Amino acid sequence: MTTAFDRRRIPAPEDSYPPELSHSGIEAGPSNHAARSKSTKPIYLKAGLISQANGSGYIESGRVKIACSVYGPRPKQPPYSPQGTLNLEVKFAPFASHSRRAPLRDTEPAALSSLIHSHLLPALQLHLLPKSALDIQILVIESDSVPNVLSAALTVASMAVADAGIPMNGLGVGVMIDSEGSGDRNQSDIEVHDSGGTISMGVMPALGRISGIWMTGEMSLDQACSLIDTGVQASKSTHAILAQSLIARAAEQLSSSS
Amino acid sequence: MATLSPAERSYIISGLSSSTPTRLDGRSLHSPRAITISYGDAPQANGSARVCVEGGTEIIAGIRLEVGDVVPRTSDINGTGNGKGKGRATGGEGWQTQVEVDVTPQAYPQLSQQALSLLSAQYESLLSDHFVPSIPPLPILPPTKYFIPHLQLTIISASSGSIPSTLFIAARAAFSDLKIPKTKRIGWEGATKGHNGDRETDDGGMDMEESDLSGIKAAVRGGRKGPGGKSGRARVGGDEWDLDPSGDGLEVLQEREKLPVLIILNLIPSSNAFFLDATLAEEAACSDRLHLCFANFNAETICGMRMEGESGIPTGRIKPLIVEGQRIAKQLMQSLNEQIPTGASGITAAAHR
């Protein structure tokens, strides 16, 4: 016997509206980024995100969100090593990219970890940490393309190491430039393929040294050199933001302990 | 990788950075060791090569072509289908070469199994990032059927160092030796109202006249009507292909002279010079190096850059290093291109100095 209040069925709303489809964010072509193509994209950096870790950091840059935590220096098992060991692990969340990554199979790319490792090494003073290991875990929450992730991860990793109080040669900053724009660009993977080439660099602006460089694609020599120059310039502003967020964190710690 | 004592390390570095640079084997800073390349060592493979560097490094490369179905590029860019767990995009093109580098325990007896597979993953990503994008596609029936090359490199011995550039030379030599079977498309040519498009096929294509739709032909044509069929534009059929036996049925890879080479500039810690072709001991002593890949005739374009090291490079030094690297790459490419065998049977030994 049907009544007006049939509990087995979900009552339908009385009105109906067509669904509103939001404009999809990923589009091939430069139209999406035309407004921002000439300026560096905004970056949000915060140190001290994770309280159990010795040092930690969080970065949001365009469509990349990364959290990083540093544990160390921790004693390392024998055999004796005269220099500290850097163990760096990058882990992607399964929902981080446009298509889902299967856990354990696609979420831990070894090649990216070794790239970030080699870009971070010049900034650290491992000879001051014998018999010790420094463990850095990088968790990518949202990513769009590999060069973007590489440069953002480098920035946040050096912030986390500095937050842990480990002496460094200089603050390393990651920048990504492609051969279409004249500054940092936010690029989806589709565009990475179509443009001439992309350079992802680790720079230590305070020392004027390049700690790592990774280039894919194809471009002429002059283009590559001018991109490198652009990147070095762009790294200075990121470096300033990094330094400020570290100072803010230190001030926070001072005021909370006093 | 040799482990060096501090005394050995400083001995090597002071030899390299002195005003008259000396190396352990007496070479000058920029002189490479002799490289021997032989093509066609593995006749069952579609293309193969073996590269030996004076001093013991030996790498074998082999290519197997597989016919693959490629989904035309969609949004699956992040390569989750790549079961090796690298998790990065290969540009989204399904026809790109798949690379595998086998780092054998006999080449690196001191490394554990885990370290071997890590090294193998690093070399694979080096090749996929900087060598594979320059390989042209091998279409059979574009855009869905391609020959997909599977490149397998085996490091048999690594006793004289400089593995990455030798990997590139071996891959390049294998692609130079590659013989691709010629194919032809067999298809139906759909006739439309008044339009009798005439599509050229190699040998076996069949043209269909306008009104003759009897029996099998009609059924096939009817079944082949694609999305454009109803409006009167018959879709050009052609899901079939066959080998083309004209000539000897094989062709070489186009533009194989343009494939990339990798130059490794090893930087000397306390000086502005660099040296080439490091031995194992020199690699362990000077860990700062710059990898540069150049492609195209005369090494015109740069297609990859990587840096390794502990101390970084001052920003002003990068450009001159890149220019020097290009000059060296040009020489290397020219001498490698001269040695590519032009005959169909390719067992040619070539020495490069």
Assigned CATH class of the largest domain in chain B? Alpha Beta
Mean pLDDT of chain B: 78
The strand count of chain A comes to: 9
**Level of helix content of chain B?**
10-25%
Kindly identify the CATH topology of chain A: Ribosomal Protein S5, domain 2
Query: Terminal Cα separation of chain A, in Å?
Result: 72 Å
CATH architecture designation of the largest domain in chain B: 2-Layer Sandwich
Specify the CATH architecture of chain A: 2-Layer Sandwich
Number of helices of chain A: 4
- Helix-and-strand structural type of chain A: alpha+beta
Largest sheet features of chain A: 5 strands, mixed
Rg estimate of chain B, integer Å? 25 Å
**CATH H level, superfamily name of chain A:** GHMP Kinase, N-terminal domain
Number of domains of chain A: 1
Question: Low-confidence runs of chain B (pLDDT<50, min 5 residues)?
Answer: 74-91, 193-211, 225-237, 344-353
- CA radius of gyration of chain A: 22 Å
**Helix-strand pattern of chain B:** HEEEEHEEHEEEEHEEEEHEEEHE
Helix percent of chain A reads 25-40%
Topology readout:
The complex is a heterodimer of chains A (258) and B (353).
Chain A: E1 43-47, E2 55-61, E3 64-75, E4 85-92, H1 110-120, E5 132-142, H2 146-163, E6 173-178, H3 189-194, E7 197-204, E8 209-217, E9 219-220, H4 221-257
Parallel strand pairs in A: 4-5
Antiparallel strand pairs in A: 1-2, 2-3, 3-5, 6-7, 7-8
Helix pairs in contact in A: 1-2, 2-4
Chain B: H1 6-17, E1 35-39, E2 47-53, E3 58-69, E4 98-103, H2 113-130, E5 138-141, E6 145-157, H3 163-177, E7 179-181, E8 183-186, E9 188-189, E10 206-207, H4 216-223, E11 240-243, E12 250-252, E13 261-267, E14 274-275, H5 280-285, E15 289-295, E16 301-308, E17 313-314, H6 318-338, E18 349-352
Parallel strand pairs in B: 4-6, 9-10
Antiparallel strand pairs in B: 1-2, 1-18, 2-3, 3-6, 5-6, 7-12, 8-11, 13-14, 13-15, 15-16
Keywords (chain A): Cytoplasm, Exosome, Nucleus, RNA-binding, rRNA processing
GO molecular function (chain A): RNA binding
Pfam families (chain A): RNase_PH (PF01138)
